[in-house]
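Blinded run. Sample ID left blank on purpose so nobody reads anything into the name before looking at the predicted structure. Input follows.
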Amino acid sequence: LATNENDTYIHISSTTIKDMNDNPVTESSITEVTSYVPDVTPPALESFIIDMDLGHLIINFSETVLDVSVQFDYLALRANETLPSIPSNINRQHQLSNGTVITTSGPQLTLELTEDDLNEVKRKDVCTIDLQEQDCYLAYRTGALTDMNDNPIQGCREL
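Blinded prediction complete.
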């Protein structure tokens, strides 16, 4: 549906729109689009929450992303935004190995970390302090996931 000019149509019923005098619009037949501009905008990460008890990452995006496109090994949690460029903090990051997407495609995905990944994040003291200090950043490579039109998220911070 609405992926190209061959499957994009519109139908307007008489109850869809009214004019300034409260008159309904004339019902239209199904009409094919005359011009189609495809989605080429990659998704962007807007925010995330980590639940260290459940081992869940809840990630919010600028648009719907495809649940089966998540590449866990393209994601890393780190204690500092500028890692790995700060040598003293190099051990306070963890690249994920695997996991499970426990929600379906949408603008928010919930990822369940593996027990091994969660234990490593805790052992490395990443994402462990309260919200008054920030020690939890999510880094990702280009292609860590895609939107519904196969546009890959663009990388953020070197892994």
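Unblinding after everyone has recorded impressions. The radius of gyration is 22 Å.
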